[in-house]
Amino acid sequence: MAETAPTLPPAREIPAAFTASLRSWWHVGEKQSAISEERLLRRLPFFRSSSQPQLASEPVVATSSRVQLTNPAHYINTFSIKSTSPAPNAPPPAVVLHGYGAGLGFFFHNFPPLADWAARRGTSVFALDWLGMGRSARVPFTIKAKRTDLRGRVAEAESFFIDSLEEWRNKMQLSKMTLIGHSLGAYFSIAYALKYPDRVHKLILLSPAGIPRGPNYSEPSRELTDDASSVSSSPKLTSKENREQSSFHRASQGRVQEVRQEQKEKKERESRTRRLFTYLWEEGWSPFQLVRSTVFWGPMLIGKYSTRRFSTLTPEETRDMHDYIMNITLAKGSGEYCISHILEPGAHARLPMVDRIAALPKDMQVTFVYGDHDWMDPVGGQESVRQLKKAGNPNAKMYIISNAGHHVYLDNKDAVNEMMVKALDR
Q1: In this predicted model, what pLDDT tens digit does every residue of 233-246 receive, in sequence order?
Q2: Are strands 396-401 and 248-250 parallel, antiparallel or unpaired?
Q3: Quick check: is 11 in a domain?
Q4: Looking at residues 179-196, what average pLDDT do you find?
Q5: Residue 7 lies in a domain
Q6: Residue 303 is assigned to a structural domain of this protein
Q7: Where is the AB hydrolase-1 domain (predicted)?
Q8: Alpha-carbon distance 204 to 206, whole Å?
Q9: Are 45 and 95 in contact (CB under 8 A)?
Q10: Is 182 a catalytic residue?
Q11: Which of 302, 310, 306, 311 is nearest to 331 (CA)?
């Protein structure tokens, strides 16, 4: 059910001093959150707010809305890209699902090629905020299972998200979907496909969380302390080398081990700040709860993170991303509290997907994607591909993206966009 989007005021700059950060804090709210999201989406020439006319001559039209679920307090923030010439035999729509503590606005650089695909195939693309995250309803997150009931805790935590996705699908009257998930969103995409296999056409998993057994070399606190230094500090390439590096490559054993070795070296150099975040995480805090509790410094912490982590963006894009991240981070805590029920200290899953994934339908296409500077362990993806093939599924593939970290879809957007479109067409 669509709601009227507010009129956009002039864009605000990233706070440059403490007083500006404090002013930004007080302006956080639902209206400002909608404005910050729309500021990112307005970069798309095919996006139309409720006040703008929709032209029939356009190949696709994108709109933003809330989809109301059965519970009056539950709704899903939804970005829709729809072909204006639907094809009778169109492939199932693609649904883009963000990671932990993020939101659909993170994918603004990936929507144009996905929109081109939707126009060419006469289908649709959707992006959602998970229930309890982004700009979806921030409803209470509770687990009734006892702490010792491992499977019960995991099942409840997963169901909070995947059952709301199923309800959204039903409300949107979609028979099948291709799920494109990043990080924890990729984990939930697999969990959804295991519970509702008849509703999933394909899985495209970008730097998926919760795949391998045993501890990662990195900690879950990286969601807040990660930076793009290893990506942006890569040596300058010639134009020919850049074309080669911008493409995606099938994951070889050697490439996987290179990524793992870099993760191990970074772990050994882990800063005191990151260790503090990890300790607080393991004590039951989320990094976003920590930021909200620092009343005076929260906006500045977010500004430092967005500037450091998204250094591949232009200054204007970084400014708007900062504003967007601040609004969704400082909103009421909800779905973020799932993390301690799903991940053990050390950022590995309590019920790893590598041990569950073989139960997927044998004809389902599953694509794993990791950056060559990723902090998610690619060995989990490699072993999952083996498990799927052992179970009789020949459609599992894995790729390594050059010059990319955990936010692989932004770090090397051209390569990931090309890979996603090819996977959708395959």
Answers
A1: 444 433 443 444 45
A2: antiparallel
A3: no
A4: 97
A5: no
A6: yes
A7: 95-412
A8: 7
A9: no
A10: no
A11: 302
Whether pLDDT at 279 is above 90? no
- How big is the chain by its Cα radius of gyration, in Å? 20
Q: Strands, DSSP E only, in 378-423?
A: 396-401
Q: How far apart are CA 199 and CA 360, in angstroms?
A: 12
Residue 2 included in any domain: no
Domain range for 77 is: 18-233+241-425
Domain tally, the chain: 1
C-alpha 258/C-alpha 362 separation (Å) is 30
Our answer to whether residue 227 is catalytic in this structure is no
**Contact predicate 86/123, CB 8 Å:** yes
Euclidean distance between CA atoms 319 and 49, whole angstroms: 21
Nearest to 221 by CA among 162, 289, 319: 289
Task: Give residue 201's pLDDT band: very low, low, confident or very high (50, 70, 90).
Answer: very high
Q: pLDDT tens digits for 116-127?
A: 999 999 999 999
Burial 340-378, CB ≥16 within 10 A → b, else e: bbbbbeebbbeebbbebbbebeeebbbbbbbbbbbbbbb
SS3 of residue 368 by DSSP: strand
Q: Which CATH number do you get for residue 395?
A: 3.40.50.1820
Catalytic residue, from 80, 83, 183, 246: name it: 183
Catalytic residue among 374, 384, 402, 411: 374
What separation in angstroms does the CA of 150 have from each of 98, 145, 185, 343? 25, 8, 21, 11
Buried b (16+ CB within 10 A) or exposed e, 136-175: bbbbebebeeeeeeeeebbbbbbebbbebbebbbeebeee
Residue 37 and residue 223: Cα distance in Å, rounded? 20
* Nearest-5° Cα angle at 395, 189 to 156: 20
From the list 310, 318, 319, 314, the residue with the least C-alpha distance to 409 is 310
Q: For the chain, what percent of residues have pLDDT higher than 90?
A: 54
How confident is the model over 348-357, as pLDDT tens digits? 899 999 999 9
Structure tokens, 339: 């993390």
Q: Please spell the DSSP secondary structure of 272-302, one letter per residue.
A: HHHHHHHHHHHTT--HHHHHHH-TTTHHHHH
DSSP code, position 199: G
* 8 Å CB contact between 244 and 413: no
**374 in catalytic set:** yes
Query: Average pLDDT of 306-324?
Result: 81
Greater confidence (285 vs 328) lies with 328
Q: pLDDT tens, 37-57?
A: 999 999 999 999 876 666 667
